[in-house]
Amino acid sequence: MKAFLILEDGTVFEGTSIGSTREVISEIVFNTSMTGYLEVLTDPSYAGQAVVMTYPLIGNYGICHEDMESKKPWPDGYIVRELSRIPSNFRSEDTIQHFLETNDIPGISGIDTRALTKILREKGTMNGMITTNENFDVAEATARMKSYVVTGVVKATSCKEPYVLEPVAADAEVKSIRTAEKTEPLKTQAGRGRRVALLDLGAKNNIAQSLIERGCEVTVYPSHTTAEEILNTNPDGIMLSNGPGDPKENVEVINEIRKLYESNVPIFAICLGHQLMALATGADTYKLKYGHRGGNHPVKDLETGRVYISSQNHGYAVDMDSLDPKVAVPAFVNVNDGTNEGLKYTGKNIFTVQYHPEACPGPQDSSYLFDRFLNMMEVNA
User: Fold this and answer.
1) Which residue positions form the known binding site for L-glutamine?
2) Tens of pLDDT along 165-220?
3) Hey, how many other C-beta atoms are within 10 angstroms of the C-beta on 123?
4) Which domain does 251 fall in, by range?
């Protein structure tokens, strides 16, 4: 079946329908990762967006549900050059085509994703429509999509009730975490370490996994949780997760994070959490032209001068001109475009990064940041 991608600027791409055949309007973004398409599809940070994969062949190793970063896929749509319909991988449990169909995600294959990506880089991220209706009207479609705005996605992707993830006995390789809303297998290790409160703003599984592998007990809280609820449990540390959408939309969450900042509890924040902490302490954020999404972004540690290759997924950044050096100072910078990639908060046990140290798959260069967080909790104990 034919499918069409219509961009907000009137550009039309014709391809083949994959997944669901329903019509969708969404923000079109691109990801440069060569692998990890399942992790991209199940990353809550893509809620409200349709993802273009710049790597030309997607789906060749199939779907392995153990690799999912959340309980379901989140993008509104999926756009690829070529879809591999016959995966070759001993771990494969499904095809990407069936996975998209099952989860009602429309997509399109067979288009020139390089040309599409060049448009998004030159003109910036824009809205688009994926449709199988051959009788579409471009003017009518572009008029409809101009009013589309990504809203309410943090609340939509966050868990609805708190739940606890604990390390288990050494002979148990996998523990199923069961609550009223989810069942997810998480690999753990023996021992009981520090107690970490993880504020779920649209968290990837591997954030909690990275803490559990280090022996921590992790309590995951919904995004609407108050600072008092978290602090009353006396956690050893607090994690602010990644998540989707415009950080400035989360006014209530920002107010609660401001209270967490005033506490003496060590805090480590990733991606959206990094942006929300900056907003909570008086800095500003702005939307990037086309964002950073992929597994090969170089970031420089300003203290050591060392460069790390990082996994990233964000469309907003912290404005360095709005940062009060008495509150926080830059800790990492993006080598490609000079945007901020992390902050160290003055006189506080708080550090934040824009990129994903829990990257999976992707470069593991920055996983040491979780060890830094553990050391911070140990010193503060």
Assistant:
1) 45, 243, 245, 272, 275, 313, 315-316
2) 976 544 444 443 333 334 344 444 444 579 999 999 999 999 999 999 899 999 99
3) 14
4) 154-379
